[in-house]
Design a protein that fits this description.
Blueprint: H1 4-7, E1 10-21, E2 27-37, H2 39-49, E3 52-53, H3 59-68, E4 73-79, E5 83-85, E6 112-116, E7 121-124, E8 130-136, E9 141-149, H4 151-161, E10 164-165, H5 171-180, E11 185-188, H6 190-197, E12 204-207, E13 210-217, E14 221-222, E15 244-248, E16 253-257, E17 263-271, E18 274-285, H7 293-310, E19 316-321, E20 329-331
Parallel strand pairs: 4-17, 8-13
Antiparallel strand pairs: 1-18, 1-19, 1-20, 2-17, 3-17, 4-14, 4-15, 5-13, 6-7, 6-13, 8-9, 8-10, 11-12, 15-16
The structure holds 2-acetamido-2-deoxy-beta-D-glucopyranose (NAG) (3 copies).
One 2-acetamido-2-deoxy-beta-D-glucopyranose is lined by residues 36, 260-262.
Keywords: Signal
Domain C-type lectin: 30-135, 134-268
Pfam families: Lectin_C
Length: 350
Amino acid sequence: MPGSRLSVLLLVSGCLQVCDLHPDVVVRRFRFVDLQRTWTEAQTYCREKFQDLATIQNLNNNTEAQQAAVNSQFWIGLFNGTWRWSQDKEEDNNPSTWFEKWSTLEPGTGSCVSISKAGAWYAKDCSTLNAFVCFSAETGQHVLVDQKKSWPDAQAHCRSQHTDLSSIRSLEENTQVSALLPDPVQTDLGAFFGALLGGTYSTSTTSTTYAWIGLHRSPWAWSDGSSAAYTQFGLLQSKGRDDCVMMDSSSSTWFWRPCTENHTFLCNTDIRPVAMRTLKVRMSSASADLTDPVVQNSVLQQLKKRMEDEEGMEAVRLKWRMQPDGQVFSQEEGTAPPPVCQQDDACGTA
Ligand SMILES: *[C@@H]1O[C@H](CO)[C@@H](O)[C@H](O)[C@H]1NC(C)=O
Ligand SMILES: *[C@@H]1O[C@H](CO)[C@@H](O)[C@H](O)[C@H]1NC(C)=O
Ligand SMILES: *[C@@H]1O[C@H](CO)[C@@H](O)[C@H](O)[C@H]1NC(C)=O
């Protein structure tokens, strides 16, 4: 019956693999890097290739990190907060041009820095009330603000009224800034005591004046700027100032080491998950030869366009799956079992 071939539509079905990228969903994972680097080099590497050095914020993260690098000791993103200038400019915080003028036995335990009339620096509790020196980029001048404020309030004042709290980059600038401070107040107590004791003592006391400058330090912090609320330090710690943190994956605890040592490291990486589905597609075919790869591909392109246009899916990737008989489509005759479209393992990342 030659005529019937044209009038009867064949019902065929095939399995279509759909990979659907979710551009708005981001999942954070750890990536272990088996290269020996200093902490800062590792940070640069992670920032270039992934997101940043690893941030561990809870026990789950810690377990994930441990599993990412079995039997290893590696840098994570935690470091001991370092001294920084409020303006946080490259030239201010560059270690090779770093200027400092600590007084004897300073810096102590304070985290905010004040300068004395004599030009020496003192680390103080940031909540102490002091006058402060702002820098104005407009005039290029340092300005003494003779109001007593805490360091954070002083910083806010400078940032709203001028540019920022002053950075000091040289001895010359240090002298300029300290010269702004009022002379120490001398109280002559000689007369007072003299009158009191009926003697001829002469004594005086000097009250030094201080003003905040822009230098301060932060406590433990993560490379990506997260606060360090969760830590997992082990009991055995080295003495001294070792400012970068490693994880020991066998004990899943952390310890600190000098940042200049070379070690392997763990990065954060943000990946976009791909959803994969397998669909069964049934079509009626009149004349097109569905065994032809060109035809198969053209059907694929049409389906892809329809999914993107009508279902709002983005970056969909489609692929026909081969049936056990080596064909993509099987003809559905009343009795033949329809193909079973099994769920596939993965979409791949290509
Ligand atoms: C760490 O924990 C946070 C909060 O639960 C989570 O969003 C993040 O994906 C975890 N990071 C890793 C790398 O598992
Ligand atoms: C962290 O830095 C502070 C201030 O610089 C220092 O006193 C402390 O010893 C450092 N901690 C470690 C573990 O190095
Ligand atoms: C770290 O490795 C570099 C080479 O990659 C080497 O030049 C440097 O001396 C090493 N530093 C230490 C502290 O071992």
